[in-house]
Amino acid sequence: MLKSAVTVNPADLYNATPMTMPQPRTSAIMKTGHASNGTAHGIPSPVTGPNKLPIDYQVLMLALAEEYISEARRNSKVIALNSSAEQAARYYQLIAQGLGCMDTVLTRWQFQDPRTEARLRLRYASLLYEETENDTLAQEVLSKGVTLCERSRLVDLKNAMNNLLVRIHFQSGPRAALKLIDNILPDLEVYKQTAWVYAFRFLRVSLYLRQASTSDFQNALHQLKIIKEQAEKRRHVTIGMMSSALEALIHLRNGTTEAIEQAHRALAATRSHQLDLSLEEAPQITAFVNILDLLVDLVLQKTDSATPKLQTMQTMMDKASKDLHWRDDGAFYVPIPVQAAETLDEDSNCIMRRTANGQYALVFDWLARSELYSLGYVLSGVATLQKDTTDHRAQKFFTEGLKITQDTFETKERVGQSLKTISVHLDTRLSMRYTMQLFLVFAFCIKSEWSRARQSLNELIRTAEFESAGIVPQQLLTYVDGICYQGSGHDQLALQKFRAPELALPTQSVRNSGGSDLDLRILAAMNSCLILQGYSHSHAAAQDLLKTLTPFAEVHHNKTIVSAVNLLRANIDSSLPIVQMKAHITAALDAARKSNNQQLLTVIMNMMVVRFFTNTVGDQAEKSAEVGVKLAKKVQSPLWQAVANQNLSTTMELGGRTDRATSAKATAQGAWEQVPDVIRQKFAHVE
């Protein structure tokens, strides 16, 4: 993070000369300043009485500080995108000068208005928190500010300062930050400062999620339950919907079967309020709920119900492009029907805003328009690919989404934000780009276009290493690399990838574990089993690995994984009684049908033809072989078209239908010629 490039101590800047920069309103005055009597920046100490200077240097210094900060942040997007060391140094020099001016005013002038001093302290501490690593000074400034606010009864300013103090404490001591919230909340509840109670509870949820342990997730869910109960009691619809949406998001991150169902229930609680008029001021909440609702169906592989939800999400995004409530900085306001002071906007440090009807609104940071559209393209592509792997629209969705993420930030988006904030959103943007590139690789793999898949993967690896190391998990790249090797017939290279340490199964069997990390490990183990099974000296190793794998996969919430593991159990263990083999195949077929996975259905059906109808004459054998051919044609895999048509040719030949057998054999031969050379060499006897 560029934030660590410098550590600013404004106390060292009192006698520094401001940088040369365009300032038409102040440059003439700056030239008239004279350094005398130990003053800072050549500005005289404040003078009282009849000889008072006509220039208010306090106002001048504060205006100068804001000029420095604005000038620095005007180029923050360019610096974040280009990562220029020279530009970053200039950025931090400007920030340092601005902080120096603020510190000078705080230490050398006395304020007649306590609110003005409190606002300056809050602004100064916020900049120290966002732009420097000087947390100690920020805490000192805020502590004095809180005392001032208590003495002057500046409620919103005090709460904003305490909110910032919590975030600063969290950087060095998470427990201390959470304890501070515990100390603050009782007073807020006693004095019925409802909006700030919500703000601190949502802050607590966000802090728990940063730690990302199982206990922290549970604590976050507990806080959301409290928020939802309070919101329902007061009929604060938008707050209740936001807490339910966040609850669903946490359950989705957990990834277990039970958690996915809980996410579904949490979203169901929001549907009764989707027509509430208060949501017109916060369309992002509706968008957030629609996206989560679609995600739940995608995870559960409910392709039939996912289709109308995808259409709803796309309609919502079209409306969002014209909605005036969709801000360019990505923030959105959640209105709370509680009257707010007229000074709220200046006193809350962007935590709260005052609505047009004079009520509180809690500010959340989410997605700008272009970021929302890129997410929409990802979800559209995934949903389309999941419903029909041969649908070419999925590839178009990913391609269009890539165009958005490859462009620079839109002119109006993220203007005036800190370099730290811009860098975080840039990382999110890059992550979205790499996600779409990965899905493009998967789309090519599904269609057996292995050369294009390898080309796209190599391009992804190059750009990821060049632009930002660590954004794409190495575990995921290793797995996809193995898939490309296996699909093109390089089994040993694929096995090396699948058995890499980052893809090894956990040492202890946790039957109901979830999450993408474990899912990748399960998939890698399955592919390893298939490769090991192909070598006679590795049959025992394949069976041992399958025994280790089975407890993780057989009760997984993803029906495709359940289907695949049952297929492996029926295929790898040749000593299984015919009854158990049929039970595993039936279970695999049932799960594949529920998930509508055409690839697995193709494999299962052709496996059934080989296992149960070899050297068998009859209608059932012929019908099964015909179904295998239709499925193979639908998935557009040359390998499985060759296998299925060869099975059909053999079956028809046994039944005396030589014309149909000859036609199927010719089709099999044509498909076989499209299979990678390495695979044809290994299975030359099929030809």
Topology at a glance:
Layout: H1 27-32, H2 57-74, H3 76-82, H4 85-108, H5 114-131, H6 135-152, H7 155-172, H8 174-190, H9 194-211, H10 214-234, H11 237-254, H12 257-271, H13 283-299, H14 303-320, E1 331-339, H15 344-347, E2 352-354, E3 359-365, H16 369-387, H17 393-406, H18 419-446, H19 450-467, H20 474-487, H21 491-498, H22 516-533, H23 539-553, H24 559-572, H25 578-595, H26 598-613, H27 619-635, H28 638-654, H29 658-672, H30 677-682
Antiparallel strand pairs: 1-3, 2-3
Overall description:
- By secondary structure, the chain is an all-alpha fold.
- Among the domains are: about 195-365, Serine Threonine Protein Phosphatase 5, Tetratricopeptide repeat, CATH 1.25.40; about 375-455.
- It is built from 30 helices and three strands.
- The protein has helices at about 25-30, 55-75, 75-80, 85-110, 115-130, 135-150, 155-170, 175-190, 195-210, 215-235, 235-255, 255-270, 285-300, 305-320, 345, 370-385, 395-405, 420-445, 450-465, 475-485, 490-500, 515-535, 540-555, 560-570, 580-595, 600-615, 620-635, 640-655, 660-670, 675-680; strands spanning about 330-340, 350-355, 360-365.
- Strands 1-3-2 form a three-stranded antiparallel beta sheet.
- β2 and β3 (about 360-365) form a beta hairpin.
- α11 (about 235-255) packs parallel to α13 and α16 (about 370-385) runs parallel beside α18.
- Mean pLDDT is about 85; it is low at about 1-50 and about 510-515.
